[in-house]
Amino acid sequence: MMQNSDLIDQLKARAFEYRETIIRLSNQQPFGIHLGGSLSLAEILTVLYFNIASVDPEHPGWADRDRIILSKGHGNIGLLVTLAQRGFFPLSVLEKFNQVGSMYSMHTDVKVAGIEHSTGSLGHGLSVAIGMALVGKREKKPWKVYCILGDGESMEGSVWEGLMSASHFGLSNLTAIIDRNRLSQEGTTQETMELDPLSAKGEAFGWTVLEIDGHRIEEVLQAFQADSHGKPKLIIANTIKGRGVPALENQPASHFSHLDDQQLKIALDVIQNEKNDLKSR
Amino acid sequence: MDDYTGYLKKSSRDAYGMAFYEQAKRDERIVAVTADVPDSVRFTKFRESWPERFFNFGIAEQNMMGAAAGLAREGKIPFVSVYAIFAALRALEQLRTDIAYPNLPVRICTTHSGISLGQAGPSHHSTEDISIMRSISNMVVIAPADGLATAMAMHAIKDYDGPVYMRLSRAVEPTVYSSIGTYQLGKANLVRAGKDIALMAYGASVGNALIAAEALAKDGIEAQVVDMAFIKPIDRAVIIEAANLTRPILTIEEQNIIGGLGSAVAEVLAEENIATKFKRLGIPDQYTLAGPYEDLQRYYKLDPEGIADEARKLIE
User: Fold this and answer.
1) At what angle do helices B204-218 and B304-315 cross, to 10 degrees?
2) Which of A218, B115, B124, B193 would disulfide-bridge B120, Cβ 3.0–4.6 Å?
3) Is A183 on the interface with B (CB under 8 A)?
4) Do B97 and A118 touch (CB under 8 A)?
5) pTM of the model
């Protein structure tokens, strides 16, 4: 697949739009949102939904669609924004976000168009993705399965059960992406539970591993397109929790945050400057 | 329906393997899912016949249960079979959040339940699975009484569009059904008529209660024996009827008395404002001992003699 500069620019624009939307939502939601871990997902979700995956907003249940599971279900606000950008539903549905009875809430809900499985409890999504990929593999389906995990989530033992089984079953139709922002809810993953050497562990578990800068559209694109050599593919995307809100970048406090009007203005200005830099190049 | 004579006097576990094979023959959506114990759960013939529909996840029950949800999402009807405790406790959260919450048609058919893996002790005894499964929304909970009953249970759940927990034993249960009957979702089966006391049980305890009833009959006590195979949804009518006829009710189960069938029956009685003599017979709220199954049944008064003794005490 070609990586022309137009495509890259389009995707970058989408990622900016995503960040702006997330930041505004963080301001609109009185109690805040899962801000940091949604901002670290910006480029991963953008590239996946706007270039890599075959999905059809007009027919969310289309049989041959690619399956995408956000195992780090607390990133739901990011997924919802992406699905809205992609045309699955209008962004205005988020006016009901987190209200009683709304299917648009803190964690993913399968009732929402475009969402494959309800997640939220960590360490579940990969196994479900494996069940789907097993059907795809054994029945030679054209579709692929993508599963996005958090690095903190990867402390769960079930993730490693899943990693072990995916290579055992030869699931070359499965790609897992670990959003490696190095922070869990209350600390660094290094302090809380050392995950490194994550790439070496992935390889030892029988996966083709690619480690990339998860905020560089070009690298994310290349990683998704890369050959997996008949194995399941693990993309370790090094990211920054809270990316785009300087005061919160790499801060555990970004995990769940409300931005006040002043913080919102600063954050939007930062994004505007980045946008201007892109244009002027 | 199948020719059911082959199920007669089989253990629920053996009968499950047979009934599962027959159902799988007719429904290509059915797949087998296990964690290292395909022969123990009687998947052997299925695996040989349809290796492409067989999934062994190794000794990793959480991943197994989550993957079963994924298989169901792709239109399969997974039959997940491992020892009861490892499905109901080890993989409980996946079972609850990935299968039951989205109401996926996964059949969790567990073997070696209750105290039937006697010598293996509390680490392998499932004495909480029924109370846990009762509180899982969307879940149908069934525990057939013997081999023939297992075939009946498999038939009863065939078209249920949601998750099912079926509890099977390791041992050969005493025979309750000598000819084919039916299980209807949410309905109890009256297997012996009697006016003096109602013995309500599921699984192997039904057969033991029947034997106890014969012993009681020699003392002039006529016990009604009710196969409460469906612990959920529970048959309220059969409980209300028994109590309204002022029969004492003794519930019998290989499960902690907290939260099991006894609790379910007590809930109905309390909500219906019915007072009757009542006792829950089961594993008292403590961890089980290890030992031969028959000896354990005797120890916990879950053998026919123990049941008859408890029945006599309740009537007095």
Assistant:
1) 60
2) B124
3) no
4) yes
5) 0.96
